[in-house]
């Protein structure tokens, strides 16, 4: 979902939060969008989302951030959850090795259901609990580099790197969208006007094609 409008914001980007239940996705969401942290937050049931508007290079970007339950019983909503997403924050808990081990499965699911150009960042959350660390920062960095992901360790409790994580994702999406728009303009410019008598194939919704003739 990379919609452009003309009034309250210039772009609307859908970002999804993924990862095991209990890794802190909901608190990352509330910290970024409302600057709040809830010590006794309950597991998300189904799907919820929040929004935040930021400025990037003079443009107003509205981030629509979706949070889903990490439990297996909610996997049926997968396709709808990923549809239209242009960015993802893949979260694990640095104090729980299993949540890091499951990152590969989440990444595979994301790549199976989301757009191939989706911007992905991996976040090792709960860095404030370094005395309970089970996953080293180096392990996270190595995995991220191998998979071509951006990487940060975050703490929703201490508000560490949460803003930076979303800013990085949104900036990269904006640059991709901007680059595509410039490329499209350049292609249109170099193509020049369509000559009279040129046949153009236009696909119809049923999958067939029609021929339109540009001559007057």
Automatic annotation (TrEMBL):
Signal peptide: none annotated. Belongs to the small GTPase superfamily. Rab family. GO terms for cellular component: endosome; Golgi apparatus. The keyword Flavoprotein does not apply. GO terms for molecular function: GTP binding; GTPase activity. The keyword Membrane applies. It is a lipid-anchor. It comes from the Eukaryota. InterPro entries: P-loop_NTPase, Rab_GTPases_membrane_traffic, Small_GTP-bd, Small_GTPase. It comes from Musa acuminata subsp. malaccensis. Keywords: GTP-binding, Lipoprotein, Membrane, Nucleotide-binding, Prenylation. It is found in: Endomembrane system. Residues 196-216 are annotated as: Disordered. Its main location: membrane. This is Uncharacterized protein. Pfam families: Ras.
């Amino acid at each position: 979902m990379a919609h452009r409008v003309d009034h309250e914001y210039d772009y609307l980007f859908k970002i999804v939060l993924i990862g095991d239940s209990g890794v802190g996705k909901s608190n990352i969401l509330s910290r970024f969008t409302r600057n709040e942290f809830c010590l006794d937050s309950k597991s998300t049931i189904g799907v919820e989302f929040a929004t935040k508007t930021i400025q990037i290079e003079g443009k107003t970007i509205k981030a629509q951030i979706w949070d889903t339950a990490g439990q297996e019983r909610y996997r049926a909503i997968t396709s709808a959850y990923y549809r239209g997403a242009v960015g993802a924050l893949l979260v694990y808990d640095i104090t729980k090795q299993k949540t890091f081990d499951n990152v590969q499965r989440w990444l595979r699911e994301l790549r199976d259901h989301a757009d191939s150009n989706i911007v992905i960042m991996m976040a090792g959350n709960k860095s404030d609990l370094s005395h309970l660390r089970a996953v080293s920062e180096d392990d996270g960095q190595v995995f991220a580099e191998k998979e071509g992901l951006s990487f940060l360790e975050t703490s929703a409790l201490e508000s560490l790197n949460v803003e930076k994580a979303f800013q990085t994702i949104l900036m990269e999406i904006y640059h991709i969208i901007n680059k595509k728009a410039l490329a499209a303009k350049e292609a249109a410019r170099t193509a020049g006007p369509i000559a009279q008598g040129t046949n153009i194939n236009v696909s119809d919704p049923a999958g067939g094609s029609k021929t339109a003739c540009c001559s007057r």
